[in-house]
Amino acid sequence: MRNFADFAETTITRKQLYRGKIIDVALDDVQLPNGGTSKRELVFHSGGVGIIAITPENKMVFVRQFRKPLEKVILEIPAGKIDPGENDHPEVTGKRELEEETGYTCNSMTHLASMYLSPGFSNEMMHIYQAEDIKKTANPKSQDEDELLELYELTLDEAEQAIKDQTVCDAKTVYAINWWRLLLAQRSG
Question: Has residue 182 got a pLDDT over 90?
């Protein structure tokens, strides 16, 4: 069996194409393990955190918002970009985003998974946390000025229907609903 090093590509040159608020974009010329060369379009992102929050009434918390790349409104679990200084503590991002986007706070968070969302071109990693003991706060942190969100709380059946009708269509939220389904199955079985 070949080892993973046999597949490594070596960067020959990197051209910075764009530096933005959320992403940086580069174009690499690479040496392939078979001796050939190729180009790689790369997107660099600081990463994000998605929060699975279940209410005392056994409903999952979602936010409804317009997503410009998709040109449509979708339902998602609360989530946000890791800000500078939060890289070593994504749960800080999670607690901040939960409160800003939903008005809920929590006592603690449990890390469930970390995953690359599109490793073919991006290094963005999403950390998924479960918020423990959520409760509404009287004076939540304010939302980002450029975010227009609407809060939804769905049962598992409603959430699964949202996947079927493509109201839920992003990886982190599909993961969250499937995780919830498995959790409930374990508790009942």
Answer: yes
81 CB-near residues (< 8 Å, 6+ apart) = 22, 45, 46, 47, 48, 93
Residues 24 and 107: their CA atoms lie apart, in Å, by 34
pLDDT at 129: 98
Per domain, the residue ranges of the chain are 4-44, 46-188
Active site residue 124: no
Q: Does residue 83 register a pLDDT over 80?
A: yes
Contact in structure between 112 and 52 (CB atoms under 8 Å): yes
User: Which is the catalytic residue, given 41, 145, 153, 160?
Assistant: 145
Please determine, for residue 162, whether its predicted confidence score (pLDDT) is greater than 90. Answer: yes
Token representation of residue 133: 């003991």
46-188 carries CATH number 3.50.50.60: no
Buried b (16+ CB within 10 A) or exposed e, 83-102: eeebeeebbbbbbebbbbbb
Confidence of residue 13 (pLDDT cuts 50, 70, 90): very high
The pLDDT of residue 1: 58
Q: CA 150, 84, 133 angle in degrees (round to 5)?
A: 45
Is 77 within 8 Å of 64 (Cβ atoms)? no
Would you state the pLDDT for residue 11? 97
